[in-house]
Amino acid sequence: MQESKGETHDQRLAANMRALRERKDMSQAALAAAMSERGIPWHQQTVGRIEAGQQQVRFAEAVELAEVLKTSLDRLTWSTPEANATEFVYTAGTRVAKSYEEVATAVCRLLADLAWAERALADCAGSKWARVREACTDTAARAAEMNLDAAVGEGIRRYEELPHTAEAAG
């Protein structure tokens, strides 16, 4: 049966299968192996032929495919515009989650480095060497200046300087 936009159900399934596989960072070979483990004898070439629209998927294969890709059968039938829009939104959410993790890791590292600087300052306080005292003064100033609040403020300042910020506000 042909869809109104010239996209067949098989083409939809093929495009959605590929998009879902790629979103999971799964190779064609890995998908084929997972399907084979479920009793569906697929090979990497099978996945390639399906994604290229050269081979159809039986219903039992689609059921197992949905399980492997951790999705619903319905998701395998979405139109390309709907699937693309959905992937666009999911990509935004994935980027937020990735950035969140990067920031959390950076915060942990900054706090650990600040604690290390405090220990170094405590260990070297009142040193008999002028250069060590000078280093302590410099490091104490940096630690006071480059704290967590300052880092967040700097990140916000940099973000606000990006060209897209003015466009979004207008």
Can you describe this structure?
- With 170 residues, the protein is mainly α.
- The protein has two domains: 70 residues, 434 Repressor (Amino-terminal Domain) (Orthogonal Bundle), CATH 1.10.260; 77 residues.
- 74% of the residues lie in helices and 0% in strands.
- It is built from eight helices and no strands.
- α2 crosses α3.
- The longest helix has 45 residues.
Describe the structure in brief.
The protein has 170 residues and is mostly helical.
SS field, number of helical segments: 8
The major β-sheet equals: none
Strand element count: 0
> Over all CA atoms, what is the radius of gyration?
27 Å
The succession of helices and strands, N to C, reads HHHHHHHH
Uncertain stretches of 5 or more adjacent residues: none
Q: What is the oligomeric state here?
A: single chain
Shape: elongated
Mean pLDDT across all amino acids: 92
Strand content: under 5%
Helix/strand structural class: mainly alpha
Helix content: over 70%
Q: Into how many domains do the coordinates divide?
A: 2
Query: What is the rounded distance between the termini?
Result: 46 Å
